[in-house]
Request: fold
Amino acid sequence: MNHPETGIEKGTFRPYDILAGLSYGTKLSKSVSLGISAKFLQETIDEQKAQAFAVDLGGMYSMKNGFIIGANVQHLGTKMKFVEESFGLPLNFNVGVAYKLLDNALTFAVDANIPTDNDVNVGFGADYRIMGIFDLRFGYRYTSGGNDLGTASGLRAGVGFGIGSYKLDYAFVPYGELGQSHRISLVASF
Reply:
């Protein structure tokens, strides 16, 4: 952090975010599934922290011809408060369609993400499962107002590895001039 008048460095700070969640999903029938996620969010900037709790709700309908239709709503919850200023989490609505082929080894998907505080964006991608345990993923997300951070900022790529009820996923998401995001997820199903 530089002093505003002299430009001399006065120290550094590292902002960070934490998200911890617990999810539950169940099949209501052979073709209908529902799920819920409860999450704890914390943002830290310098010495100030803000926290919130939220839930996500979703559903999915699987057709016999390989198509899957899904929808969810995200961030139903409390407000975050930094010092004296509080703000609500942005509601987000998603709808999507996927198509599975090659004995469910290859999946193509398209979705629309409709946030209440930003432009609508549309994504498409593919997931290819190798030997039943490795996943290769590639996609692109386009924002209706344009990808402000450059065309490459819409690219998405990832890999996954799963054995039994455990999965480890990695995703690479470029953000143009802002750098890259590396996302790692560990999932345990029971």
Observations:
- The longest strand covers residues 48-62.
